[in-house]
Amino acid sequence: MTIRALVILCLAWFGGPALADDIAPVTVPSAHSSAETIAKLEAEMARRNLTLLAKIDHQAAAAGVDLQMPAATVLYFGVPKAGTPMFLKAPTLAIDLPLRALVYETGEGEVFVAYNSGEWLAETVMARHGLEMPAKAQAGMSAMLSGLVEAATAE
């Protein structure tokens, strides 16, 4: 694919209309730098017995090809004891999970954490793979994620 074709594809994708059933990520401002927010998220994950599975530093990847962008790091995490049975039931689920949180900085230096809500996980991810997430599980997931992010972003 040529660069021109890729640019046109990206413009069409990102500039197109939003899906009616799309639920925006939850976005929370952080009182800390991106590095401090990531460190606090990692510490809170450990405290809650969540497993940090991967960390993707998009800023470093951009720098590797001589491009610049503000800090943007995705942390992939979960509870393998809970996730593995779901992956065994629906192997394609692994394309959408584990859970993730994005810590990013704007061009103005503001830092945010974005994550997907329990509602989105149930209505989009689980449904996509033929699985159901009961309302109680959705609420518990949302509470866990919001508590995790609040602990990392608050002053």
Briefly, what is this?
This protein is α+β, with helices and mostly antiparallel strands and 155 residues long. The protein has helices spanning 3-15, 34-47, 58-63, 80-89, 118-128, 135-153, and strands spanning 26-29, 51-57, 72-78, 99-105, 111-115.
Report what the structure shows.
With 155 residues, this protein is α+β, with helices and mostly antiparallel strands. The chain is 47% helix and 19% strand. The chain contains six helices and five strands; from the N terminus they run αβαβαβαββαα. A five-stranded antiparallel β-sheet has the order 1-5-4-3-2. The protein starts with a helix and ends with a helix. About 11% of the residues have low confidence.
Features:
single chain, alpha+beta, globular, 155 residues, 6 helices, five-stranded antiparallel beta sheet
Strand-helix topology:
Layout (H helix, E strand, L loop, with lengths): L2 H13 L10 E4 L4 H14 L3 E7 H6 L8 E7 L1 H10 L9 E7 L5 E5 L2 H11 L6 H19 L2
* First-to-last CA distance: 47 Å
Largest sheet composition: 5 strands, antiparallel
> Can you write the helix and strand succession as a string?
HEHEHEHEEHH
Estimated share of beta-strand residues: 15-25%
